[in-house]
Every structure is written in structure tokens, then in C-alpha cells.
Amino acid sequence: DCPLLVLSRQPIMLLDIDCFFASVEMARRPELRGRPLCIGGPRTARGIVSCPNYEARAYGVRTAMPLRTASRLLPPDAVFLPGNHRLYGEYSDRVMDLLETFTPDVEQVSIDEAYLDVTGCLHLWGDAGRMGSAIKEKIRSATGLSVSIGVAANKLCAKIGASIRKPDGLVIVPGGGEREFLAPLPVGAIPGIGVKSVPRLHARGIMTVGDL
After folding, report:
1. 119-124 long-range contacts, Cβ below 8 Å, gap at least 24?
2. Which are the catalytic amino acids?
3. Dihedral of the CA atoms 194, 162, 58, 139 (nearest 10)?
4. Which is nearest to 98 in space by CA: 59, 38, 145?
5. d(CA 43, CA 120)
6. Tell me: the pLDDT tens digits for 138-157?
7. What is the mean pLDDT of the chain?
8. Can you state the angle between helices 20-28 and 85-99, rounded to 10 degrees?
9. Of 54, 118, 163, 204, which residue is least crowded by CB atoms under 10 Å?
10. Could you tell me the pLDDT band of residue 195, with boundaries at 50, 70 and 90?
């Protein structure tokens, strides 16, 4: 009925590296694990947070927040580090190379995200759950990073699936179950509907994807 959901049944995976910049730093320095961590610069700098880890997010810190604001929210033992984009690029390349050992059909869309068309190789694993778990384990053992994966018949549902159980999530949307999966989600779950659009939609009584 809806053109956005005219689907093939080809399985698509969206892989998203959890808190990528912060996760790279924690993989290199295990003593940082469990402590609030912000990538972006010193806590007194005038810049912004480019990536907080989940411990920092628990205090209300968000990406693009001023570093000084984050410093006020976080405890004294929180760690603030400058970004190392050369290093992050190297880790990204390693992850993408690992993905190509599972399928040649990899579409990298950002430094920490990629779509995988697994149509031609899913039979080697039996089902998408086994294949997704194998991908996650291989990346974890090779790089120390955790990833979240969404599996669906289209890119939209795969991307949303990867986002709703982070970190270390694996969400599979059954073919034909797209409408049921999407309908109860908050309208802001749709990529591109941001913090300015959500209040405007709420004012019109549009609270969920189903309402939209």
C-alpha cells in the first residue's frame, strides 16, 4: 500500500559500530572501560563532543554538546580525549575488510556504518541470526569493537533495527512484518526526522511511525 514499503525479500543487513570513536579508544586502553569518556578535546576546550561512550550518555551527555557543558554534567573522573581520525580510519578499514569476508556486496555509508546484501551467501549460515552473530563475534575478536546489526528486507527497516537495541544488538525484521515492526516506534526513529521535526509532529498528534 505504501510505496516506501514495496519490498523485495532480499535480506539486507545494516551494521553500525557502537560509539565508534570512544569504542576504539577503549579497545586500545582497557582501563578506560566503565568510565565516562568523551572524544572531542579537553574538558575546558571550546569545542564539542564528537562521541560520548554509553557511560557518559547515562549522565545526559550527547554528541555535538559543548565540551564544557559535558564537563559540568560528568563526574571528576570522566576522561576527555582529542579525536584521532587517522586511527579511526584504520579501524574502520579493518571492519569493512572483515565484512567482505562474509559478502562481496558491502556498501559503506559512513566511517562506522555499512549495508550488506547477504542474498547470495545467507544459505552458508542457515539463517540471518547465525550470520549476524558470526559477524559480530569476528569483529569483536579481531578489533575489540562491538557492533549492532539490523536485518530486514529493505534498508530503512535494517537501519532502524540496528538502532533500537544498541549496544551489541541484533534485530531481525521478518519479511512481511515491516508494518508491525515500524508502527509502534516513536516517530523520531525514522532517519531524517530530527529534534526540530519531532515536536512539530507531536503538535499534530503524530507520536508514532504508525500515526505518520
Report:
1. 119/10, 119/11, 122/11
2. 113
3. -140
4. 145
5. 48
6. 999 999 999 999 999 999 99
7. 93
8. 100
9. 204
10. confident
